[in-house]
Amino acid sequence: MTSITTEQAFTACEANKAAWLERRAKLAQAEQELRSQILNPDEQIPARMKWLREVIEVRKWEVNQAAGRYIRSHEEVQRLSIQHRLNDFMQAHGAELAAALAPELMNLNGQSALIKNRAFDRSTAYLRDALAAWLEEGAEINYAAQDNDILTAIGFRPDAASRVDYQEKYTPAQNLIYARRKAGLPAREPV
């Protein structure tokens, strides 16, 4: 398994955001064209309007899919940053942390997976409580210096509009149907 860097994840996130925004623009263009057809009727209007409605339906699906990819790639950048910074922390302070949690972690080697998982769960609860108490004191939270530029650039959360665009959930069968419709649309455009 190849390890992806935070920079590579950031590049993918930016590309997914650009693709989502491009698809949103194409959807808006198709919707505008449909409104224009309604306001300026001609003899081709029934066939053209039917085709435009199909295009809009497919474009909405494309926007939904692109928004999902963008949201997942945004989360991946954050996940990688957290994972890398925690790995750095453990390299520098892992022995101290293990010593603090020694009453839970001692003699885990050779224990069953159930006992190990229970000890890790309790240790995680202690860490959660300690972090919550530390935050209650009003500690200031900043991004790690190594990832500050990347995390600042992508923002704390994905764009709110992407979450709205990704609200509708499609079944695998629906995804297949829309993918087929997308493939067949250019060939069917009425003149």
TrEMBL record:
Pfam family, one: Psu
Domain of life, source organism: Bacteria
InterPro entries according to UniProt: Phage_P4_Psu
Name of the protein: Polarity suppression protein
Originating organism: Superficieibacter electus
